[in-house]
Amino acid sequence: MAFECLLVSRDPGVVCMMNRLLDNLSISTNICLSSSKALGQLSEGSTDLVIVDWEDDSPEFLNRLRECYGWKKPTVIAVSAAKECRVPGADLWVRKPVTAESGAKSLKAAYSRMLYDHRRHTRYALMSAVVATDGKGRSVGLTITDIGDGGIGVSTKQEFVVGDTLAFRLLLPNTDQIIYIQARVQWTRQYGVVGCEFLRIPPVDLNILHDWLTSKSQIKKPLVEL
Description:
Blueprint: E1 4-8, H1 12-24, E2 28-32, H2 35-42, E3 49-53, H3 58-69, E4 75-80, E5 92-95, H4 100-121, E6 124-134, E7 139-147, E8 151-155, E9 165-170, E10 179-188, E11 193-200, H5 203-216
Parallel strand pairs: 1-2, 1-3, 3-4, 4-5
Antiparallel strand pairs: 6-7, 6-9, 7-8, 8-11, 9-10, 10-11
Helix pairs in contact: 1-4, 2-3
């Protein structure tokens, strides 16, 4: 997969420079001339990065962006001629006129954020039955439904509340070593659906998990070194 960027600008200089730098990072780019039209494009697919050439309607655009995406919003870079080094609602800022150096610096920082968010929030499906030990030492049957860098999804007939702890051993698909995981319940839903965050994974087992997640997450590599 490739990260996707929505570039909102009517300035040929900004579009040309940013588009070239985005290509160097193997980021797929959609160009939109106005913020009003950009909202429609955001609703059509997955956007990891938004670069907005700052205009009078840009604050409203960012507010709408947060409403559409909620907690998992794309990384936002504001391009502005203002002397201030911060733009409300934006994660990063680059001053006009955009140079190859300033643009590359901001995109490098944005790429690191996107990579972290992708690894943190992406879940990979599993259907692995395990027997876990809860905080009271009882054995509980679980099905691990998904796993990611930050936690796991669980299906179970046992009732849990937020804060409950679980410990279990898991064999990931296409690996030959069982890993040990301690996790804490973060949220619960009806029908026995539970979300957990990792509490403790031994270093060797954590390396196995990270290697497995990396093998599953095939992000198109940048054409330049970061």
